[in-house]
Amino acid sequence: MREAYHVELDNLADRLSGMSSQVADAMERATRALLDSDLKLAEQVISDDVKVDDARADCEEKAYALLALQAPVATDLRIVVAALHAAESLERMGDLALHVAKAARRRHPDPVLPEQVRAAFAKMGEVDVRLARKAEEVIRTKDVEAARSIEADDDEVDDIHRNLFSVIMDKDWPHGVATAVDVTLLGRFYERYADHAVSVARRIVFVVTGRMPGYTGSDV
Amino acid sequence: MREAYHVELDNLADRLSGMSSQVADAMERATRALLDSDLKLAEQVISDDVKVDDARADCEEKAYALLALQAPVATDLRIVVAALHAAESLERMGDLALHVAKAARRRHPDPVLPEQVRAAFAKMGEVDVRLARKAEEVIRTKDVEAARSIEADDDEVDDIHRNLFSVIMDKDWPHGVATAVDVTLLGRFYERYADHAVSVARRIVFVVTGRMPGYTGSDV
Predict the structure, then answer these.
(1) Which end of chain A has less Cβ packing within 10 Å, N or C?
(2) Where does the PhoU domain start and stop, copy by copy (chains A, B) (predicted)?
């Protein structure tokens, strides 16, 4: 049973790694669609989201099979449940990339973002994608060193996000209320994506190593 | 074992019902704090959030005990996993109520909301709280009829939320960008709370009845 358990756990980890890669690609493309007002790319992100949903359903089935057939206990059990939570967060990250792509499509051919905040979004997109790729890397290489810098990346997104608000709220903001609302919501999507990515990366480290990095609560 | 399983499942359902009640209270108070600029009430919501986090940890422990000791399969297994997901969503609902309370505290003694949007937030708060209380009721009474109107309630929040945007984005919006940003984020918190409440209510119906209402995917 231990042998079968580990083979099935590896399959589940591979699928989670694939999902991390899918949602990293989705956010990379959505950010490019947003910055370049690229309708075709936005449409691609929107139509690809169903693949993320399918991958999540498949992860759940693999986790159910593990639980039902292997009846793991103790740490083994927590690892499978962590994988279930990670799959849920990854699906949500896909949804957030989808929201970004939909914003790009809604305003097309106009740009959504004024020049003043383009750099902030380019940077948030870059860090978000990096976070998702780290999660993927941790699984592929089983090298949890890659997970060490996760918190720093998340802090970077939070800093850019906070700074974005001071730009929008400045009394000299010249772009009007509608643009401020778009920028506010988009900023929130990037910030939430990073939060989920951190949570996924921690859980994936746990799935790979059986230990939760920098974690003191019971929220595995 | 079947007897023990059902006793433990009832315990878990009770704890989820308690969490639903906690997050309903939190959103009710946060909305009052927001509308009345009531600092004391806002502080109470903020300090009570740790109790929701504790309840979630306790639900997880109960679910782990069920999985490890009873090794449920098939529908029984899916029910326990649904409870785990429901606990996660309920914790998130608590966080969203916390965000509302923090907004009320941040602007105190000034009101966060201009007169023009007060009614919309009063209504969204009312429907959000009603959704959380329905989840609680379904568990307590095991009467899933209460769950039937969940989708309609969620549609109501979505309608108010959409209408809110047209108010903010109107070119005659006289309250400036900073207020529009506050209103945008607060609107998003109420909308997300309702989304999570719907997901929780469906999962709770599944925990109680073993059947997912109006659900066609595998996302239990």
Answers:
(1) N
(2) 17-103, 122-204
